[in-house]
Amino acid sequence: MERMQARSTLHYELGLLLRPLLDAIESPELSPFDDARIRKQFAVDSGEFRTHANDYCRVSDVDFSLQRSVIHEASAMLQGLVNQNPITSLSTQVVDEQRAKIESAIASVPVEIPSQVHEAQTPFSTYCSVRALIENASETLSYADRYVSPDLLFRYIIGVPKSVCVTIVTWPRNAHSSSGKMAYDEFLSVSRTVARERGATNYRLVTARELHDRWLLIDDVLLQLGGSLKDAAWSSPFTISHLDTTPHSVLTLDRLISSGTEIFGSAQISHP
User: Fold this and answer.
1) Which class is domain 2-107?
2) Is the pTM of this model over 0.90?
3) Inter-residue contact 171 to 211 (CB < 8 Å)
């Protein structure tokens, strides 16, 4: 669990490091004072980030030197650009390219995802734990649940790298009660904005009437959840069971997705 939190924290620190720089690049008028202030702070924060990356890339007696080198080279390149050029002359594309290299290196350091049991009436700590799990995705993220609500997207999916292919499987609207239909419509409204931002390549929404269990697939790690994320640990314990990722277990989720109705995705690029 500590390793998962370390990865999530490193992603968060990367965002904090780059956000002021990206904001300054997009600022039409940046005073010399602000330019100097941002440069100085970036140098300090960049050094701290590399130190934390060093610690993250050392696991017991294993040193993930390749990943550490990628992180150092990408951050050093950004540092050099900031030192040698006016900030407003920098390109957001270049910054995003180096960010992607760093995020990929962070994600490629193995992190074990254990089974968990969260006590009842601990919804906030459970949310923090599950969000850290989800943000560990580096390639694919699939979530299957009959009952989804808008906060699934802005509480959990917001922190998933945009390069990750996110798939959500849920019940069709006509399978819900009246109140369930309202929740589905609210979810669909927010889903439309996610589709607009992530695009059909990295976001997919599928409905499947045969859906029963709650599944969470993070890259090649399959988890079974003891309830819906929207109600996690509010009034009863919430379990996260790490299943053996066998061809049979993954095929169960794959079949749900392939046999369902695509609401948005590569075959249905217009979100309703």
Assistant:
1) mainly alpha
2) no
3) yes
